[in-house]
Design goal:
Length: about 500
């Protein structure tokens, strides 16, 4: 057999190997797309009515676009930006500035960091961020925290060292002032990890802060989708996937896994069974817990039973249409201090979305995280609260009239990285030899977060399938940008010290 015949045989063999991917968010679509390109027979199952999971967009009965919250795309999202280039789509705005408000008014404005002279991390973030009220002495109190940033290198050892500590304890331990914590760090946690500091893992806090803000000066720069992510990214992406021969099936809720000899052979959705040579689960924590609750097969394994120890956070997404144009200084805004345990954001969709750019009135998206107290309220109770909050930030909202609205409740919608949760999180591999995991809550050493992490873990799961089934080319996962030289040096010195101290000191388990 010559080389060309061998290639043809390999292609046919891989075509007949069936992969079932569960969950059509960033992770599931990423895994499906790459495996379909390699010739696998891929079936993607989505429990909801639309591909996209939490970022799927849809239309109201009146034909207006809505989605389950607004999601930014940060400077370090190298793999997602590479994907949109490959798909030859241009879904993003230009880089945007952002601001932060409290009930007292404007607190912080952020520039476009990549446009400014680059300073060694984290000096650029410290120098260029424009605090309006926070005294310098409070900002300086964060300097001792840099040791924890250096010490936390995303290794398994570092996660175990910091995960049992709360973020609030971490900041207090390193001498961060109470005002800096209340007015800077906790607001970041409420919109970055979606919970107050006493409910956030210190390990997750350090990982999130480093990736989005502290690793490199431009990391906090962000672009936004020029419409719903479902319309601008997922719809053309699904079209590409289906052209490659993969099947994308909505309204399919997984109820069990069929196994034989420690391998999955099929996925059960009610009365339907989908044969599989490999399976990738790409759903959020809440969705995975529901699958396990219905699946005797998964319940038989402790790693899946232990998922019941993980949690998620409530989200409330409100979109308001006003009867007039309102001047909102910057398109993206984070807010704190309105409710003690809730963070919220608001976005000027006239500035961000093509659909509303030339509209006669203002359209605003307002998203609440850790929104437990708002979920039970009726729409007619929520909308006046939202407008009152908006006018505290931008007084012109006081005289405007809401002419249409959308309120979307998302109970247990986003991952909660609680203290002690790391021990229950799953790696990409499982005790089933051909069942793999992906999603923004899966353990990975890549170092990314949020949508980028979900997409990366989808590619990593696809690579594990290729390794397991023996056919195809591995996906090229772009690594995060290397640490700057001084951070690399500090981290190496710290590792050397830790290794040396272990040989002469007791094994202290606290960081």
């Amino acid at each position: 057999m010559n080389r060309e015949q061998s290639k043809a045989t390999m292609s046919i063999a891989s075509h007949h190997k069936k992969v079932v991917v569960v969950g059509a968010g960033w992770a599931g679509l990423g895994a499906t797309y790459h495996l379909a390109k390699q010739g696998y027979d891929v079936t993607l199952l989505e429990a909801g009515a639309y591909p996209g999971g939490l970022v799927a967009g849809w239309k109201t009965p009146g034909g207006r676009s809505v989605e389950a919250g607004i999601h930014g795309f940060w400077y370090p999202y190298r793999n997602i930006f590479s994907l949109t280039n490959e798909l030859e789509i241009n879904p993003f705005t230009h880089w945007t500035r952002s601001s932060q408000y409290s009930p007292n008014g404007l607190e912080v404005e952020s520039p476009i960091f990549q446009d400014l002279p680059r300073l060694p991390t984290p000096l650029g973030t410290f120098v260029y961020t424009q605090f309006k009220r926070l005294p310098l002495i409070d900002r300086i109190s964060a300097l001792p925290l840099l040791y924890a940033v250096v010490d936390f290198d995303n290794s398994d050892e570092a996660w175990r060292r910091y995960d049992s500590v709360t973020a609030r304890e971490l900041f207090k331990q390193f001498g961060v002032s109470g005002r800096l914590y209340r007015e800077s760090f906790e607001p970041m946690l409420l919109v970055g990890l979606f919970a107050p500091g006493e409910q956030c893992s210190a390990a997750a806090t350090l990982g999130m802060l480093y990736y989005f803000i502290l690793a490199h000066q431009p990391d906090f720069d962000v672009v936004w989708c020029r419409g719903t992510v479902g319309e601008k990214i997922f719809r053309p992406w699904v079209e590409h996937i289906e052209k490659l021969g993969a099947k994308v099936l909505a309204n399919r809720r997984v109820t069990d896994v069929i196994t034989e000899n420690n391998k999955a052979t099929g996925i059960v959705c009610g009365d339907e069974v989908f044969d599989a040579d490999a399976v990738i689960f790409s759903v959020g924590i809440t969705g995975m817990k529901k699958i396990v609750a219905n699946s005797p097969t998964l319940q038989s394994r402790s790693e899946f039973r232990n998922l019941t120890n993980l949690g998620a956070v409530d989200v409330l997404a409100v979109r308001l249409w006003f009867d007039r144009k309102i001047n909102i200084p910057l398109p993206s805004n984070a807010c704190f201090g309105f409710d003690e345990t809730t963070g919220w954001t608001f976005f000027d969709l006239n500035a961000l979305h093509d659909e509303y750019r030339d509209g006669p009135g203002t359209v605003v998206e307002v998203d609440f995280y850790h929104a437990n107290q708002f979920i039970p309220l009726q729409d007619k109770e929520i909308i006046p609260i939202v407008q009152q909050y908006l006018q505290s930030c931008v007084p012109a909202f006081a005289g405007a009239k809401v002419i249409d609205s959308s309120v979307i409740r998302l109970p247990q919608a986003v991952s909660h990285f609680a203290p002690g949760s790391y021990r229950h999180m799953l790696p990409a591999t499982t005790s089933f030899s051909n069942v793999f995991m992906s999603g923004d809550w899966i353990i990975t050493r890549h170092g990314s977060w949020s949508q980028e992490k979900a997409y990366v873990t989808g590619l990593e799961a696809a690579n594990l399938v290729i390794s397991q089934l023996g056919e195809g080319t591995y996906a090229n996962v772009l690594p995060i940008e290397q640490d700057e030289a001084h951070i690399q040096t500090f981290r190496q010195l710290n590792r050397n010290w830790r290794q040396f101290s272990k040989s002469i000191l007791p094994d202290f388990w606290l960081p």
